[in-house]
Design a protein that fits this description.
This protein has six helices and 13 strands. The chain has one domain: Class I glutamine amidotransferase (GATase) domain (Rossmann fold), CATH 3.40.50.880. The chain is of the alpha/beta class. α2 packs parallel to α3. The radius of gyration is 16 Å and the shape is globular. The mean pLDDT is 92. It is 23% helix and 26% strand. It has a nine-stranded mixed β-sheet with strand order 4-1-5-6-13-12-11-8-9, with helices on both faces. Strands 2-3 form a two-stranded antiparallel ribbon. It has a two-stranded antiparallel ribbon with strand order 7-10.
Length: 235
């Protein structure tokens, strides 16, 4: 019998408070379980990096609000978010997963991490990036995204457009040559990315985990991610 793929879920921390607690929505874990995987929460400890890299089949980088390095941002647009202990550990684990071509799914801040590691530049405040930008930092609202044809994301969701949620202040503002934008909102904001050089390295700006209880085409992303993590599919 084939082993259920084990997915490392990087925990966030309460950066809006005193940074003394790990936190992550239960929906991340539900989404992985429902897609056929076995999720494990990963704290920000240097001693845990090697076991996570060696013993887990895939990596889920969750949302969060913290600052990335200054040179990841477009000139003069530095982040107003606080720093986090999460970044150093998450970067180290992610780089090792990329080096070994193990599957990675990034959501919100996780997408921005994938982008920054591959030479993209970020908006620190997407709302200030142009007069036609819709309100993106608003829980409970939905907007339409258009999928880029012939991308992995389009192949997974199998629809040209779909409604997604939106609550993020920062966003990818400038792509590098190694990264493909696989979805945009109607105002032009990049809503998903993928790195074609890897078997599965995909980022979503929206919070698909909060849509797992619905019959939503985007839930195929979790199924595709977990399928890519099955050990026999990676040999």
């Amino acid at each position: 019998m084939e082993r259920t793929p084990r997915i490392a879920v990087i925990l966030d921390e309460n950066t809006s408070g005193d940074g003394s607690r790990y936190e992550a929505s239960k929906s991340y874990f539900t989404a992985i379980r429902d897609a056929g995987g076995l999720p494990f929460g990963i704290p920000h400890l240097s001693e845990i990096v090697e076991p996570v890299v060696e013993e887990f089949d895939g990596l889920l980088c969750v949302g969060g609000r913290f600052a990335y390095p200054d040179d990841w941002y477009l000139q003069g647009k530095l982040s107003r978010a606080p720093p986090s202990e999460r970044f150093a550990i998450e970067r180290e684990i992610t780089n090792e997963y990329l080096r070994r071509d193990k599957p990675i799914l990034g959501i919100c801040a996780g997408m921005q991490l994938l982008a920054g590691l591959h030479g993209c530049r970020l908006w620190s405040d997407v709302q200030a990036s142009g007069p036609s930008i819709i309100e993106h930092d608003k829980q409970g609202s939905l907007h339409c995204v258009t999928l880029t044809p012939d991308t992995r994301l389009a192949a997974l969701v199998r629809v040209p457009t779909m409604l997604v949620n939106t609550f993020h202040r920062e966003a990818v503002g400038e792509l590098s040559s190694s990264v493909v934008a696989s979805a945009h909102s109607d105002d032009g904001v990049i809503e998903a990315i993928e790195i074609p050089a890897y078997t599965f390295a995909l980022g979503l700006q929206w919070h698909q985990e909060q849509l797992v209880a619905a019959d939503h085409p985007g839930n195929q992303v979790f199924r595709g991610f977990v399928k890519a993590c099955v050990p026999s599919n990676r040999n």
